[in-house]
Amino acid sequence: MQLHQDVCEVLYTEEQLRARVTELGEAITRDYRGEEVLMVCTLRGASIFYCDLIRHIDLDIKLDFIATSSYGADTKSSGEVRLTKDLSSPIAGKNVIIVEDIIDSGLTLKYLKKLFEARNPKSIKICSLLDKPEGRQTDLVGDYIGFTIPNAFVVGYGLDYAERYRNLPDVCVLDPRVYTK
Length: 181
Ligand code: IMP
Ligand code: MG
Description:
Layout: E1 7-12, H1 14-31, E2 36-43, H2 47-54, E3 60-69, E4 82-85, E5 95-103, H3 107-117, E6 123-131, E7 144-148, E8 154-155, E9 171-174
Parallel strand pairs: 2-3, 2-5, 5-6, 6-7
Antiparallel strand pairs: 1-9, 3-4, 8-9
Helix pairs in contact: 1-2
């Protein structure tokens, strides 16, 4: 496919994403054998990754969805995380895996983990497609990570800039000219 005019590089192609997402699903299947798992999708960025991932998990799973906001139309976290949509059901006694698109500062997941821990689940783990450790402002570590990436702003495969580019099939580096106008 031709490179979108607003991106400067493809970091991971559809094929590379598919292969890695399959491996993550297999790892979760192995680690939770015989257990039930609640897969929590963080809307909206993780939605495409989530739909692909859950179809590679061969376990008894249930689905739920949450939404947070911290970014607005910017490439840096505002530092303030808000829950804009809570889970639909209680998680007490359940194995929970939070599925995220990317860990940057770690503030979003730190906030969610703390919120969920107070609800007494059996376990909580984090599965993120991407990890940007250079952006970290907390001690948050992911349990299942697809790819560790350098400190660039990426879009596609669910990830957005100001709600755009989520539908690009590859993970791409956004051309800085788009946000440094
Ligand atoms: P954190 O709270 O700083 O870890 O940010 C997590 C959220 O920021 C992710 O769920 C994304 O929505 C967003 N984010 C961070 N880096 C990027 C990026 O490179 N592209 C798109 N969204 C990003
Ligand atoms: Mg997100």
